[in-house]
Structures are given as structure tokens and as C-alpha cells.
Queue: 2 jobs
Job 1
Amino acid sequence: MASETFMKIRAWLGVAVLTLFMPTILFISVLMYLYDNFVRRKVCKDIAGEVAVVTGAAGGLGKCIAVELAAKGCHVAICDINFDLAVTTAKEIADKYGVKAKGYKVDVTRYDEIVELNEQLTNDIGTATILVNNAGLLLHSDQLNPTVQEIEAMVKVNYLSHFWTNRVFLENMKQARRGHIVAISSIAGLLTLPQSEPYCSAKTAVRTLMRCLRAELRLNRITGIHTTTVFPSFLKTHARVKTFVQESGYADMYPMIEGEEVAQRIVRGMQRGEVEIALPGFFMILYRFITVLPARVQDWLFFSPSIVNLTSKRAMASLKEQ
């Protein structure tokens, strides 16, 4: 009993010491932030000639990212469930940028198809050392009452697919001793959105998955493989989401972002070696602030009647009309 009591006291003393040194830690953190954003950012690694896999790349944000990678000299695999559109996108990119680009029909929730994709891509273009996990489902057919099948599909596409693609393509990177994995999460992976339990849960899981991956790489002293997790806000690349954001009132709080702008920021951040990117950037600061508050305070701030009246009720009304 005495031993357990001592262990508890020791743990709380550790927290007290950490709290004592928190001002110093915050000061060092600010210096690191300034260095990363105003000094280190000038140094961008060259990705020309690398082979990149982009999931969900036939259209939307995925296409914008594939275009931006091609503009930097990357060969790209356009992976999507819509094969015809993937082929068209690949041809557009190849013709415009003079890189190798090919469309592949892939269900990213199926591990065997990811393995087959890796084999085909290696034979067609080369070994992939850049992976962008972009494929995702945004809304259900009935957002307020989704079916079991829709919930399962959202969790598989938005989270499980990252697990499978990381597992397959990470082996390429380990053999090449270099690589970069980019995961497209969402602001919903940082801040909670009402009536979006499957979406928020899956996007939060992606954030945790990437943190675990970073820890694994660090513990195994693998220095040539890097990761970037992206938390974008609402984009203009999806017609139904665009309508929802405008009618709900979220667009009145902050304007929606162009897909091209987000893609440029993602690729630039990847080249700089940034670990996490929020778009717009103040969301990351807001998230850091929120996490130090007690849960009851967080709920009071973000789910108070005034906030609910401002956005959530309008959002629910918009969903009922769709």
C-alpha cells in the first residue's frame, strides 16, 4: 500500500514539475514555431522524379493535389473508384506537365486491391515513395439518419483505408530509405461537429494513427521517412458540401477554401517537412487552447445555446431539406 501511495505521489510531483517549467516550454515552442515558419520553410526538398500515389484523385481536392505534385515533377498514380474519370485526369496531367500519370480503379477499403495497386504501379511507373491518403466520404444520403451500411462505409474509407495503404506503401519507403506519407484528415479531427459522429470519429482516428506512425518511425530511428497530417476546413470542391456550408451559416463564420489553394499548401508543407497543417492555420491554435480546458468548459463554450442557434440548428435544417 505504501509503495502504491509513493508511486501516486511521484506521478503528481512529475506533473507539478512539468507545470512549473511550462512557461519555459512554451517559450521554446514559440521559438521553434518561428524557426519552422520563417527560416526552415525556405528549405524545400526536391520531389521531382518521385512516384506519388494519391487516393480519391479523379476529382476534387485529390485531383488538385495530384496536379500540384505533377507541377513539382512527380509521376502520379490517380487512384479512384471512378475509373473513367481517373483515366481522364491522368491524361490531363500527363499532357500538361510531361510526367508519367496513370489512372487506377481501386477500392481503398480492400487490402488486396491496395497490394495489387502497388504491384501494378511498380511495373507501370516505378516504386511509390510518396503516398497521399485523400479518399474520403463527407456526407451520408440522409445525414440525420444514416444507414448501418453508410456508417460502415464512412469508417472504412475515412480511416481503415489509411491503415491499409500505409501498411503497403511504407514497405516501399523502408526499402528506398526515403518517403513521405500525407494524410488528409479534417478540422472535424480537431473540433467536434454535431450530427457527424462517424465522420468526426474517423477523422480523429486518422490523427491518432499518424501520431502512432510518427512514434514508430522515431523509435526505430527511421529518419528518411516523414509524415504530414492535414486538417482542412470546408472546401469548395464538393457541390453538396458547399451548399450545406452556405445554408448552415458556417460560411458566414469563415469563407470556404479553394482546392487549389489547399493543394499548394499541402505540397509546400510536405516539402518543408511540416508534421501537422491546419487550414486555416488559426484552427490549430484554437485546438491547442481547447485541449487544456476541462471537458465541461469545452462543452459550455462550443455547445452553448447561442452557438447552437448560430450554426447547428441552421445546419440541421439544411440537412433536412437535402
Job 2
Amino acid sequence: MKIVVFGASGMVGQGALRECLLDPAVTSVVTVGRSPLGTSDPKLRHVVHADFGDLSPVASEFAGADACFYCMGVTSAGLTEAEYTPVTHDYALEAARVVGGTFVYVSGEGADAGSKTMWARVKGRTENELLALDRPVFVLRPGFIQPLHGITSRTRIYRYLYSWSSWLYPVLRKVAPKYVTTTELVGRAMVALAKGAQAERVLRSDGINRVAG
């Protein structure tokens, strides 16, 4: 099985890549980024590409893909909607246009196209457009994600928050299981969906954990 991963250097993407490399059913992984990834593995190929708004020049790298995991994202803090939209919406739709197979889009808890909150509105609109495509599409809406196996966020404020709140995970797991998951479970759920696992098309944290098994 061949899987393409966008955003493999981010926290969620690192978890997805780790589970792809560990699963024997995944024979080939292609990651895409603007700079070298810094990770090597016999079944991993990293494609350096600058313009995520036009993936046509590297489309041949994705031939025969069984699934595409779109894990790219940026914090909305300090950004206008016009600045936030390309990575969250435009690049995701371009990835779906160029890469075949099952498409898994990492959104977020609270995404809603009708929301007054900018990030939730953009993510919700993206979800709707992807789910309208004539192909297998799944949307993941994780809430609190615990990073495992040395994985960290590239965003400084997120690194601080996850470090400070790590002790909360066992408590949240008990009192609010619908809203908590881990990078490992998110990655395992993605691989399971690529394998054809049966699930609702929009998965919150509890659904992600269930599919991950």
C-alpha cells in the first residue's frame, strides 16, 4: 500500500508518518515538503516542492497512491482569513485533486462552515468541499492530542501548552473521552482508514480512538 503524507514534519504528521513506517501493510510512503524532512527509512521518499498550490510538477510521484493524509496546518493566531485559507483550504483541495485513493483530512474539534470563528469556518468549508468529492474522504476532528514517542509541535506556544498540560491527559481521558486522543492513535486511525476500515466520514476523538483499535 502506498500512502502520501502532507505535513509530515508537524505534530500530527509525525504521528501519521511513524505509524505508516511501522505498519507492514504500508510498503511505500511519499512525503512532501518545502525542505528536507530529516527522517530516513527504506520505504520513505521525501519530495521537496515549494508551491503547494500547484502540485502538477510532482504529480508523477503520487502515481498509484492508495491514500493521502493531509496533516498540514498553521495556527490561526495573528492571521487574517485570507492568510489562513491557503494552507487550510486551498492546498488541501489541490492535494485531493492530484493524489488518488482514500483522502484523510485533519480538521479540528469545533469546525463548522457557519461558525463566526474564522479558523472553524475555514476548516468547516474545507470539510464540506472535500466530503462532496466522489471518492472515499474522511475528516478527523481531534480535540486535545497528547504527543507521544518524542513527537513535538513546531509551534512554540503549542509546545509550551502540551508540555504544561501533559499531566491532564489521564484526567481528560476519563472525564471527557470524546475530546482526547494521542498522536499514535491518530496515526493508527489514518492507516486503518487507508486499509478500508468502516467508519463514519467525520470522526471526533472518540471515533478516532475507536478506529485505531
